[in-house]
Amino acid sequence: MAFFFQELVNGLTTGALYALVALGFTMVYGVLKLLNFAHGDLYMIGSYVGFFVIQWFGGPNKLTIAVPLLLVIMFVLAALLVGGLGVAMERFAYRPLRDAPRIAPLITAIGVSFFLENSALLLFGAQYRVYNTSEFISLSSGIQIGSVTIDSVQILVLVLAALLTVGLRLLVNRTTLGKQMRAVAADREAAEMLGINVNFTIAATFFIGGALAGVAGVMGGLLFNQVTPTIGFIAGLKAFTAAVVGGIGSIPGAVLGGLLLGVAESFITGYISSTYTNLLVFLLLIAVMLVRPSGLLGRAQLQKV
Amino acid sequence: MKRSAIIAAAALGALVAAGCGSSSSTTGGGSASGTTKACVASIGLEAPITGPVAPLGQEQLHFAQLAMITDNLANKTRITLVQGDTQLNPAMATTVTQQFTSNNKIVAVVGPAGSQEVEAVGPLMDRAGLAFISGSATNASLTTGKYPTFFRSVSKDSVQGPQDANYIVNTLHPKALMIVDDQEAYSTGLVSAMVPIFSAAGIKVDHESVSQKTTDFSSLVAKVTPDTTVVVLPWQVAANAQQFGKDLAQEHKKAVIFGTDGLFSPGTFTISGSYVSSFGPDITAIPADSAIAAAAKAKYGTFGTFGPPVYAATHVVDEAIASVCKSGQTPSRANVLAAIKNTNEATSILGQPIKFDSHGDVVNGKFFLFKIDSSGKYVLVPA
Amino acid sequence: MSLDSPPPAADPQVGADEWVAREAGRHEYLPSWMGDTQRRWERIGWWPRLALAGLAGLALPLIGLGGFQLQVGIDTLVIVLLALGLNIVVGWAGLLDLGYVAFFGCGAYGFALLSSSQLGIHLPTWLSVPIVMIGAAILGLLVGWPSRRLIGDYLAIITLFFGEAFVEFTNNVAPGVFGGPNGIVGIDPFSVFGRQITTNTGYYYLLVVVAVLTMAVLRLLDTSRTGRAWRAVREDSLAAASMTIPVNRVKLMAFSFGAVVAALAGTIFAAQQISVFPTDFDTPILILIYAALILGGAGSIAGAAVGALVVMIIYDGLLRSPTDSGYLFYGLILLTLVVKLRPWRRLAAVLAATVALGLAAHAIAKAISASAVAGGPASTGWLGDALRNWVIVPANSTVLGKWGYVLLVCLLIALVQVKGRWRTILLVPTLCLASFVWETVLSAQPSVTRQIMIGAILIVMMIARPQGLLGSRRVEAPT
Fold this sequence. Notes:
Distance between the termini of chain C: 27 Å
CATH topology of the largest domain in chain B: Rossmann fold
Largest sheet of chain B: 7 strands, mixed
Oligomer: heterotrimer
Structural class of chain C: mainly alpha
Largest interface: A-C, 58 and 66 residues
């Protein structure tokens, strides 16, 4: 029984991480109908930002400031920088393609992904950068319920992900910006004719999506310790999977998809075998998609002739 | 409009002409009679410089460059290194190999890194008479005579697997163990060599498998049972093993990690109490290598085990070329191949002599076992 | 009602979509003189054009191709075949298939299992290839079956799963049969009309012939009822259904045909490589095929072929050699300037200012400190000599070069934002900085630069011509 709960905790933590990356992905899709394959690389840049912040303040062994302050700086800086990068990405690569057939921005996204990943390789080098989280956040801090351990980093991830999801939901449903985003997502031309500044709204969406990816990157670094230029690819793939399975364009769907993915991976590894984890997860998700063709929480799309 | 057309066409034409001119094969790349003239030659390097295992490939590239610079200074040669990025993909390795074989200036190749790449390019290298030395392809089947121009500077899985497995059985006496492969040829080869020995000794074996791209091991670690005292990780990525060890500690598991040469990385893998079996001693502990280690650290940062064997391989090629020049000939594929076959180094960066047997394996290659103490230092375990 | 002048012809016009344009014999040509050439070329007729292209392909080795160029040619032709097959699914039927490379892998592994010593079966080529192709057709039906219920991006994810599952499967399941990460080695060579093909030249010719035949078959498909049905389903599947087109069956046929072409490419690939490994069929190849198809123009046979040629020759051929990469880098920048800067006075001014700024900066740096220009440009030959007194390369340039790279990216983004005279002025230091960055860090790491350049090329080409080189602009129904 304890094993079940341990796997559940592990699964929910990684699932929360996937959910955060999926949220940014699904927001951009909702507004632009664009599958941004470079989103995973934003996650990777966020991880690097967090790493360099740690190095700036003395490295994991000899921190010059308190840990909570360090964490705040890491998250805020990652959110700002990666959000800005998202806006630049949109301005440079995607804006000229707003009216192009849907498949063209796919290739641009691939080009941006190549560019970001290999620029990181060029600038930062290929060697593994480690956060060494256990040096400044002790492994023994955390909760222990019976023989189930939840360490403080996992708690941090879960709490922060929950807060960000709620915050995003509030933003989209209660604020003017959120209303503008929903309007642009529904019908861009009409929104423009109603006086909404579409360029600004789309830029804001990319900023928020990028910020979420950046924060997720720092969390990934804290959880998994290692940062290389290639971690973005897997993160992007998981984000895409989680977002689509949950119903692309839907915010609660992205969260649900991410959690489902994380928990499924965890339980299949734990109870069946790690050799077939990826295969069986794919089969499970195919089954889910066949049962609910628009994703778990997606709205059935109205097809007009 | 016409004007821009003409300019554009002229530019493109110049580009294509220049490109074709430089990339087509030229005959006779050697220099004039090599008596007092400098010894000029090119070596190709095939490594996964970008792609999924870029950290390993870049390390190999850096050490190869370091060897080339050091040997050029020492032997007064002018050897250049031509990079070929294979991304650990055998089809790309084939393309890169074709690029090298049709470049007459290249007289030998260092790499490729993966055993499956060697399988893909072996016949091509043989047909071109090009010697190629790998610093990390350890599959036992590669030196059965299939690839007459293949050499490697490290020993093979069929030696390492049983040696390590027997040590575990006889010295560590686990009742149950978990062995995890990373879905690459290096890893699965070792696993298939070790598991039969464990089963024959009556140990309960849990064989798991993760991809090299995995970074989250918490679910796998949760599967470690209380009577599993040893976890065998024949992985190539030390950082992954470090994370695995952290997860073990976080979930309060008592198992000890036993790793192979991929984990040998004094800066990265520091879980106290772990065992690491490596084909070479810690080069940072060998006084003769201190200069190289310091230079590598200064220029490229921390390194692991994939660099030094490629350094050794490049050094072998450099010395072969230098000896060919010293005997008055111009380096060619044939005489460099012959010189490599006659390699007889008393010592190398790996702390061992290098001499190749008839199939390309290092003679008397052995594996050293290390245990990590509480300060993260690698202590040699006497045989 | 409209007070404005009619929109320029380049903008998509409501109601004038590809279907109508095609039926009326009009489609969107490349601009200015390139379009004129296209029109003249097309007057020959489709079949003679195919014959000419095929003859040109066959004649190429006779001019003298080195071993490497032949290999690049073979790789290119395999991607041409794959792009042609993907064109059926993505270009004609409009279904986003992200697992397409798995069919390629199935064809390769199928041939490897049937004609090698792995299972001891050594079926002759004329037997194993059709079996593999029929198997792939059935597999295509299976994979396409979810398309009955799923549309658009949801279908994409299922096909993506299939693609990923294939790599996992061949890597981990039944290593005794599929070889695991060690793959299958020792595959029999192709034997055509009794003769075995063992040299690269032989495979090159075989691939040219197969490509021409495939294009012929696809042309027949394109102009048939099935082709028209695919295009109808792509444009608007509901409307097509109400016109009695069996939409589900049509979609399945698209998957099937695409799978068959991919499997054929797979068998030839396996025979030529003599070995197959799971990593041969992973995402990077999928990205290449998509880039080739969309760059060339999805929906057009010639587009798929041309796109594959362009992408592979640049990526696999030119960019692999550092000197060629340098020529390509400077050449593309100059080309962009020539095309984009009108009138020619502006171009001349920018070039002159760039040269002047570089020389001045170099002289000043040299005067300040000799070590500031101690390093030389990384380019060799005439290019290096030309640049020696123009670009500043300090002795230890790596860190400076990296910061220069970041600054260059920022400048490029700024260039896009500003307009008019400021843009022209900003162009000059950007060009100097670009050369500096190239000579310091980018040439030092050719393997990484290659990827950066292909990424940049993809971005720029899609912005310049989003419908692809030979594609037509389409008006898409808003979803």
